[in-house]
Amino acid sequence: MTETLDNSVHRFLSSFELFEKSLNGQSSSELHEVRKAALARFAELGFPTTRDEEWRFTNVALIAKTQFGAVLRSAVQDVGQADIDGFTFGGPDTSRLVFVDGHFSAHLSRIGPLPDGAKVGSLAAALDTDRTIVERYLTRNAPFVDNAFTALNTAFMYDGAFICVPDGGTTRDPIHLLFISTGGDASFVSHPRNLIVAGQNSQLSVVESYVNLRTNVYFTNAVTEIVVGQGAIVEHDKLQNESGRAFHVGTMHVHQGGASTFTSNSVSIGGALVRNNVNAVLEAEGCECTLNGLSLATGSQHVDNHTLIDHAKPLCVSHELYKSILDGKARGVFNGKIYVRKDAQKTDAKQTNKTLLLSDDATIDTKPQLEIFADDVKCTHGATVGQLDEEQVFYLRSRGIPLESARDILTFAFASDVVKRVHVEPLREQLGQIIQRHLQQGRLTQEP
Hints:
- The structure is a single chain.
- The chain has 448 residues and is of the alpha/beta class.
- It is built from ten helices and 21 strands.
- It has one domain.
- Strands 1, 4, 5, 7, 8, 10, 12, 14, 16, 18 and 20 form an eleven-stranded mixed beta sheet that branches. Strands 3-2-6-9-11-13-15-17-19-21 form a ten-stranded mixed beta sheet, covered by helices on one side.
- A hairpin with a 2-residue loop joins strand 2 (95-100) and strand 3.
- Helix 2 (30-45) packs antiparallel against helix 7, helix 5 packs across helix 6 and helix 9 (403-419) packs antiparallel against helix 10 (425-440).
- The two termini are 28 Å apart.
């Protein structure tokens, strides 16, 4: 195993040399020094193993031993509007940024009405046009010292979404970030890097989608940094519906200012091995943070959700609800930590994890955690694991509903508790259709 991991690290080091040459003038920038520091840290850390506490239930050896090629040249011109129609939503005024194999596609993207002073576009372009703003926030809230995948993303960061809403600005419609993997004969890796900044008293809704055109083996290693200004209201919805042979590691770091409100809704359906990291720091009084998640897996899929809500200041509130539906021999992991610092008095935090097992071979490792260092708080957590209620199944069958349909109805009801919390109506409807389709195809049939 160690030899495999070492070889994989060396492959990425060699790939970085090619990546560096493709940067042209950027290789001498201050940002590139951060890239090199991140690469050096990745070389020191290597890929995590099950001996690491944070990865004890998730073995990434398959990622480590697969030879992934970097996408140095974009395939955006090979993808047309017809290819993405099934993944989009909203009307003509909905802003959409499309990335193909990690590269921005201008001809598939569009920018709708935005508040004065708002900036929405490609991170690669913003490094030239808005370098001062980008450098003020980029890499500031996503530390790579202890996370090999974040270090790897930082080393190879080049393109992704850049959204900056000024103080008092309000986006009328959600901004859709669509990441498409095209597939090919060789396995490849992309490292999308997204930077989202919401100014004071602003309002912003962002949808982040990861999908595929072919069912090949590839690796998406994404990092999203979100800065929520004082009094701002931000909703971030993520849909991961990639190839059943794909690997996905997605990390989100959220930094909240005083009296701000942040909501995250994360839905994972595709992928052979998926790891979602959501980290939120409530660094001023009066913050409210809500994290919701839903995972659907079957076959041999593995979905790992790790969350951390850091209550750094007093008078903050957090809510967390994560659900999993597991069939076949799928395995789920939930590790949720609520951390309350010494001075974070009057904290109110609630965490709930629920898992529905549809087969005897499906398993879940759940680990809700509270670390409390303040004495005047109200914190609760809990986890439940179970199967469909046979009495409810019998009740539906007694009304003439076939067994499979009855099971699907109850399963969908379990999932809808999270789906209905998505405020973006077109996305909520799309999620309902995707889940129904999975159930109708045999309760979460895995993509071949």
